[in-house]
Amino acid sequence: MKKIIFILLALITFNLSAQIKKDFEGIWEPPNNSSTFYLLIDYVEETDSIRIVHFSFSDNAKLDTKIILNSDTQIIEKIVNPDNDNWTVFKDYKLINGYYLEATYTGDIESTITYKRIRG
User: How many other CB atoms are there within 10 angstroms of residue 93's CB atom?
Assistant: First the structure.
């Protein structure tokens, strides 16, 4: 009986964790004039991981990114722009609510911006 209760609690915890990470999922728009790069955040259920794609309608820069931390409440990624003297920042994402995502930059730039969900 204890094993069954333990298994049920583990499944419920895993499902709640996956749902919280899914809350990051969507297309996020930067505030006016702060960046030309939009974010696509995708939750990959098979690996319980997050995938982030930066894209721009006006910039043709290539950004190399690597997710450093992927928790239920926070994502940290390292971003390198090889076309700009290997400009490097760490970007810490925290979900404010279902409509806004805060991103704090550290490294070659120090800044905080708030993205707005435009599709989720």
Answer: 22
Number of domains in the chain: 1
Please give the sequence-ordered ranges of beta strands (E in DSSP) within the chain, or none if there are none: 26-29, 37-44, 49-56, 64-70, 74-81, 87-95, 100-107, 111-119
DSSP code for 31:
P
Q: What domain range is 112 assigned to?
A: 2-119
Q: How confident is the model at residue 5 (pLDDT cuts 50, 70, 90)?
A: very low
pTM above 0.85, yes or no: no
DSSP summary character for residue 71: -
Can you tell me the distance from the alpha carbon of 42 to that of 34, in angstroms, rounded to the nearest whole number? 23
How far is the C-alpha of 41 from the C-alpha of 113, rounded, in Å?
16
